[in-house]
Amino acid sequence: MSEELSYVLITPHSIRKSRTGAILSRLISRTALDLVAARMFAPSEQLATAFADSIVTSEHPSQRGIQELLRRYVVSNFSPNAGHQPRVLMLVFKGENAVEKIQGAVGHILHEDPNAHTIRDTFGDFVTDANGDVTYFEPAALAPRDAAGAKRDLLLWAEHSDKEGGVLDGAVQFPAGAKVEKTLVLIKPDNFRVPSTRPGGVMDVFSRSGLNIVGFKVHRMSVAQAEQFYGPVLEVLMDKLRERSGEQAAKALEEVFGLPITSDVKTKLGDLLGPVNGRENWEQIVKFMAGRKPSDCPEELRNAPGTEKCIALVYQGVDAVRKTREVLGPTDPSKAPPGSIRREFGQTIMVNAAHASDAPENAAREMAIIQISENNFKTTVEDWYSR
């Protein structure tokens, strides 16, 4: 069976309730599909209406009734109203039988299978009164019914994605005078080694900060970007590893040659080997994030997308930098407090699940490096359907 693209639209209600991570966990772990693109949207009335109208396709009374319900929901909840701009997240998945797999994970509007464990079973609502009239309806997530619908909808959203998608600075309202910040979070490549709940689990812990997701990008960091992103770390590692390198070299020389190593010689060994050791550790960090060490990367591939995937998130809110750093925990997972991301998901100082900017100015620098506003959602969709 050939590969397909499919999508999931996470509704404004699910985003406000911080259910994005949990929904992502279900999608990745249940479908094993490849998350290839994503984009936050603040839909215009035109986009919301066009998408809503495309939902109604059936002439069968019962199916058409459900589709009409969905159409009204989208018009009401996706369109801007009374100064409020809803946030919608579109996730794009690729793989064999992608449309059917996504449908199975999202589930049916009516919860027809009481034993199912779909997204809508857990996060959706379909409430009727004694007459069978719907009194409350929340679908939690939307997905296409077939491949033709997936293509139609993805191309529609791609068409609007430059103007109505990206980092949604004005979508969340804050009290006047509030110390509002934006910060960058990266869900690192170790979370994507196998299809699992880990990426969504990390997001779920970040949701405890009470901050708002206003940007979402699936990113493959190039070697050049990783070098620039982690550039400030190089000098720190080269200096930090001087003493340890000197001690390790002195111990090795004493064991191999039986020579007594003075403190002066140990210092000189550290001065010689510390920068070498520091650079090698730094190159391993670049390789972890981009898939290649800088010293092994041909010049023509330095700016090409790397082989490792991460999710780049922009969180916005009061004191956002401090709050994300507290939830993240220290670099060394063994020293991180219980309940922190690095304690729960980290393995080593390098393989530690996530990154969060440590200052507003660094957040701005890092967002610029990874081009957080780049519309790779649009290029992914249009390139796929132009083949």
Describe the structure.
By secondary structure, the chain is α+β, with helices and mostly antiparallel strands. Among the domains are: 1-167 and 373-387, Nucleoside diphosphate kinase-like domain (Alpha-Beta Plaits, 2-Layer Sandwich), CATH 3.30.70.141; 226-301, no CATH class. The chain has helices spanning 12-16, 20-31, 45-55, 61-78, 98-106, 119-123, 147-164, 198-206, 223-229, 231-257, 263-290, 320-328, 341-345, 360-369, 376-385, and strands spanning 3-10, 34-41, 88-96, 125-128, 134-138, 141-142, 180-187, 212-219, 310-318, 354-356. The strands form three sheets. A four-stranded antiparallel sheet has the order 2-3-1-6, sandwiched between helices. Strands 8-9-7-10 form a four-stranded antiparallel sheet, with helices on both faces. A two-stranded antiparallel sheet has the order 4-5. Helix 3 (45-55) runs antiparallel to helix 4 (61-78), helix 9 (223-229) packs across helix 11 and helix 10 crosses helix 11. The model has no long low-confidence stretch (mean pLDDT 93).
Computed structural class:
alpha+beta
User: How would you name the CATH homologous superfamily of the domain at 1-167 and 373-387?
Assistant: Nucleoside diphosphate kinase-like domain
Largest sheet properties = 4 strands, antiparallel
Low-confidence segments: none
CATH architecture call of the domain at 1-167 and 373-387: 2-Layer Sandwich
**Given this structure, which CATH class of the domain at 1-167 and 373-387 is correct?**
Alpha Beta
Quickly describe the structure.
Helix content is 47%, strand content 17%.
